[in-house]
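SAMPLE LOG
Freezer: B-3
Tube label: C17
Construct: single chain, 108 aa
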Amino acid sequence: MVEPEVAFNDSEDNMRLQEEFVSYIVARVVERRQPELKELERDVSRLEKIKAPFPRIDYSDAVKILQAKGSSVKWGEDLGAEDEHCSSRGRIDLSSFMTTRRKRRRFT
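STRUCTURE (predicted):
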């Protein structure tokens, strides 16, 4: 996860910055670290697909995808890393951004 903090950037600008950052790093790793990737038996073809712009997934759509996959998550609940990964699996083969987060606040 990349979470840059840049003055005067809106959410879209921040997502674009993160896309460029991640895409650059992945491209450099693929370019310069082929022996290590081969030793790790990493499928480089999947890494080569990581290019900006990344798909956006709406929070509500992600919850529906998770529920269709048997998750007990309810709209308004926080999604953990496993939930976010599961929501994109089978739907897209790239990094993605979850947008339009839930609006309800949870007080504990």
